[in-house]
Amino acid sequence: MRYKLLLFLLLIAPAVFAQTDKKLTTRLQDVVKGFKGDIGVYVQNLKTGKTAAINADTLFPTASMVKVAILCGLMDKVEKGELKYNQKLGYRDSLLYAGSDILGSFKDKDTIMLSKVAMLMITMSDNTASLWLQKLAGGGTDINNWLYQNGFKSYRVNSRTPGRSDMQKRYGWGVTTPYEMCKLFTMIRNGTAVSPGASERMYRILGRIFWDERALSQIPPYVHTISKQGMVDAARSETVLVNAPHGDYVFCIATKNNKDQTWTPNNEAEQLIRKISALLYHYYEPKDKWAPAEGVAKYMLNE
Predict the structure, then answer these.
(1) Which residues, in sequence order, are CB contacts of 153 under 8 Å at separation 6+?
(2) Of 37, 143, 197, 251, which sits 20 to 30 A from 177 (CA to CA)?
(3) Helix and strand element counts for the chain (H, E)
(4) What pTM value is reported for the model?
């Protein structure tokens, strides 16, 4: 019996040690060198299983990336029959989160389908929609319970969540790690987040992103992606899963304590996100010579 166990371990050992892509890890380390802030990166080739990581288990603010967890919490309520995906909701002025969100322009007592509110939360990153859905999903406590039950040790909602005030002061609306963001995206891709049906619907929603001027701008527009961005003054982050021609891959780039807090296309963290995204696409698709079209910069979105 011991002999068979030893033989099994010897057979799987090469596969285990081969999981780290050393070449890609070195290239990523070179790219992030000198960044004026803290950065974490996790990348996995979902076809080969190979990974590359830099501070992948370090805690970072989610900013709007927390909305993927809210979406999962919402779908969990739908799956249990506590909500209906296409039910009508009544908007109230008390829901307003000050800013330039689309939902915030609604009048008191206007109605809208829950599914459209979910679309606004993810596609437009509408904060009024997000806080409304967080409440409908049972609040941060219920969403965090779903995350815990599904094996997430760090990814949590902080805002408006009992017992999370200290974490909110440090990390804002939510907290996560690059690894756990990629884990959730992979679950959605594999149909194991909430249910196969819920995962498929979430996959479609996450594939309709308005804010596409960062990582997505470095991937050909004809290559399908799902993604979520998280941006506040001192933290710019993004998670993307790419349905690349030669195999899917997922990555998260998270930053915090950024020295450059400007809101321009030349922001250091945003430039770095674009650079890493381009590196990854051409690393996995070395024969593809695609590059952003000349003159496309004037069509990029600026907040």
Answers:
(1) 180
(2) 197
(3) 10, 10
(4) 0.93
